[in-house]
Amino acid sequence: MPSVDDVLLLPLAAPAAATPAPVTSLLAGLLTSLGLIVAIGAQNAFVLRQGVRREHVVPVVLVCIGADALLMGAGIAGLGPLVAAHPTALAVARWGGAAFLLGYALLAALRARRPARLDPATEGPATLRAVLAACLGFTFLNPHVYLDTVVLVGSLAHQQPSAWMFGVGAAAGSALWFSTLGFGATRLRPLFARPRAWQVLDLVIAVVMATLAVTLLVG
Predict the structure, then answer these.
(1) Is pLDDT of 22 > 70?
(2) Higher pLDDT, 87 or 5
(3) What does the alpha-carbon distance between residue 31 and residue 25 come to, in Å, rounded to a whole number?
């Protein structure tokens, strides 16, 4: 049996290895991004509809992912304080975004009034140019996207051990969400083979867009 002195001389057990700082920052960015993106919004509703229609899904998803990565990178690089210091630019984006959302809400409501035209087999596909223009509008005419990605993500990144790894995690969260939303929505196509389902979806989209437009105007 070892003596007390022998026990005291035994080497202490090595402490559990701490999670490397870059990994911690990466995970923090991933969770922050998902927390900001996963919500009912104009951009998500648009991606969902394109996914269900199986119409230009890849370009739409890539535009959303690329835009988020660009804006997050700009915020981490130091653009956040500049955006926050120019409320006039945000006000212009707010009014322009509200007008854009109201226009799209009106189009969705008109589609819902004509259920016979909601069947993708009878409704011609939208052109890639029109779809990408709408996608860019939903992305860059929303002032909240600048506050969330440029200002918030940019400021949170610099509170992490590795700001750029936080940005990588945030961009990965965006890529994960939009890929899941766009490509996962294609599995709902059998449900939307019925015009009534398209009517309900467009009514929901119209309500969401109109509500967000009003929120922008009164916010």
Answers:
(1) yes
(2) 87
(3) 10
- The full set of domain ranges for the chain reads 62-218
Express as a percent the part of the chain with pLDDT over 90: 30
- Kindly report, residue by residue over 24-42, the tens digit of the pLDDT: 999 999 998 888 887 767 8
Closest CA to 47 of 141, 145, 134, 111: 134
- CA-to-CA distance for 164 and 146, rounded, in angstroms? 18
Nearest Cα to 191, choosing from 120, 104, 113? Answer: 120
Sign of CA dihedral 205, 196, 117, 186: positive
Q: Which residue is associated with the tokens 């119209």? A: 206
Per the document, the length of the chain is 219
Asked if pLDDT for residue 10 goes beyond 80, the answer is no
Cβ within 8 Å of residue 44, ≥6 positions away: 37, 181
Which two three-digit tokens encode residue 61?
Answer: 């998803």
Type of residue found at 206: A
Residue 218 · residue 113 · CB < 8 Å: no
